[in-house]
Amino acid sequence: MATDEGLPLPLEDMLCFDLYAASRLVTSVYRHVLDPLDLTYPQYLVLVALWEHEELTVREVIDLLDLDYGTVSPLLKRLEARGLVVRRRRPEDERSVTVTLTDEGRAMQERARGVSPAIGAAFGLPDDDAERLRGLLERVRTSAGEQAARLAGA
Fold first, then answer.
1. What topology does CATH give the domain 41-108?
2. Do residues 85 and 98 touch, judged by C-beta distance below 8 A?
């Protein structure tokens, strides 16, 4: 966004700055909530996806979390080293790797029970405002993704 003269907006008028600052603060809350579980936020996201689906291919994890292979691969290795997930090559396609929860990974879901309420409290929004925000952020993600793809192709 820019002013009519093409100059940048002041910080207090920049939506992107508000989004950036809010993201950093929410990430800080996540860090404090996840530290006792010895999880990072990206590791937590992988576990949430697996708690929902039980088994996913690495490609499905990448697509669900909108991350790249170079980010997901080390995440999965660390989760596997901790005994939370197992990675296996698919017999029918050696190029494809599936990721499944271990018993310890399933048990982590119970230990992580307080994460969502803590984050909800950090947002400080009633349910209807949170739903509106979710919809707005989805629109921003879609639009920014399309713009990024156009710019990358330019």
1. Arc Repressor Mutant, subunit A (1.10.10)
2. no
